[in-house]
Predict the structure.
Amino acid sequence: MDLTTGYPYWLINSGLPAAYPKLEKSIKTDVLIIGGGISGALTAYYLTQAGINCLLVDQRTIGLGSTCASTSLLQYELDIPLHKLTQQIGQDAAKRAYELCYESINTLERISKKIKFTTFEKQKSLYFSANQKHIKKIEKEFLYRKKAGFDVQLLDQDTIKSKCGFSAPNAILSTQAAVTDAYLFTHALLQESIKNGLQVFDRTDVSQIDYHQRSVTAMTGKGYKIHAKKIVNASGYEITEFINKKIVSLHSTYSIASEQMHIKKLQWKEKYVLWNTADPYLYIRLTNDNRIIVGGRDEDFYSPKKRDKNVKRKTRLLETDFLKLFPQIDFKSEYSWAGTFGSTEDALPYIGMYSKTPHTYYSLGFGGNGITFSVIAAELIRDMILEKKNKDTALFSFNR
């Protein structure tokens, strides 16, 4: 599946941090992880930390799927606001989903410190109304989050202007958010896991899986066999190749990164991640080298050819979106790219087992919370493999 277009900033900035071999022989392992993006890397980290023998394969070079196209903006807020999610799945379940994403950011910070990965920074998040019609929407969402116990403030137009240098009718300021580099983080996690026994093979595709009574056999495109007791499928949006059930709708999203700027030219007095109530929503963040990343302008289709043709036009539109907020900033795009992402009806991931594929666990963190969902998935799947009870299993199951 073709997942990206153009030159993602992270790939240009970081290049290839590590090299991994192809699988050139048949092999045995306890757990086979399919997918070498951030989801697979976090799963491998959790399993190897638990002492489980693992092997990871990816059909591409590691990290070159949707991971390198991520804007790596981490939020606990889901693509569906808390007040709407509460109506869909109930108060307790909606609150718990938000809480798990909230805690996942803290978990990622702890992991980063433990493995000495420095490209991770906690920030605040500003969720602002895109227009006057959305004032009530922000106010309602604020009340739901406040009632659920989240640390949030409701800001008026003047306060937004003084804090962030742009105008919006109102906004919710949250203390919990972060930014990172998902592509570089993936490599850092894998390198740490290799120290604990993980084997990683890229440019190794799984063409067939045979399910046995107590094990599975995965066949590679070159005819090698991987014998495993269990499989974790973290292949993301390519899951349609493995599972015969409509669980996700694929979309195209677009991102741009500015030229490097002098910090004095930027309007943020504090480092906030910014996003709004538009549908699709606009989101903005800063990088460590003082670039501005802008993302959004999503389209409801999966068509690489159509997506590719749209990149130049979407770049201009995203520039315009940014300049409407910050006309005083001389924004010039240096990188632009597009990627595929998926969404579910309730904005929640699918984590766990699927009845038609025995001995197989799925880590499918669809939507804008893919990285935080991947943390939740890694924890749940580790517990499932170790046969430990986890109260959150049902929330993300295929049978929900």
